[in-house]
Amino acid sequence: MSTRHKNKIPGNLGIGIQQKPLTVTAHEHAKEQESILAAVAEFYGHALGGAAIFLLMAALSFGLSKFVHFLEEHQASVVQIFVFTALEYALLFADVLLVLIFIWNAISGAIKKVWK
Question: I want to staple 88 with a disulfide (CB 3.0 to 4.6 A). Which of 1, 27, 64, 80 is the partner?
């Protein structure tokens, strides 16, 4: 078959690549909707799990803060107070950093799943 006839075949772009038909069947549409819903459900599941972990780490940091105040009231060593205060801030910083990374990964994963 010559190139001239190849270009007249429906769906052929003339460079050996077949063009997909523009019509979408009901089954394909339902499959696409199911994929989007699965991505949204997975995102919400990850968000709830991440929020629970974030709250747990924040509660630990808050408890550590209360412990530092307790140590200050009972004239504990300055070194102990400094170390526990540094640990409190490090825990809180790590918590915020990890929740931001977690949110970024969850959003990018959901977007990739929807657009695949």
Answer: 64
Instruction: Quote the number of domains for the chain.
Output: 1
Alpha-helical segments (H) within 7-25? none
29: tokens are: 């549409």
Structural domain including 78 reads: 25-115
Residue 107 half-sphere exposure toward CB, CA atoms < 13 A: 6
- Yes or no: say if 86 and 113 are a contact pair by the CB < 8 Å rule: no
- Give kind and range of the element (H or E) at residue 15: none
Q: What is the CA 32 to chain-centroid distance, rounded?
A: 21
Query: Is residue 13 in some structural domain?
Result: no
Q: In this model, does residue 13 exceed pLDDT 60?
A: no
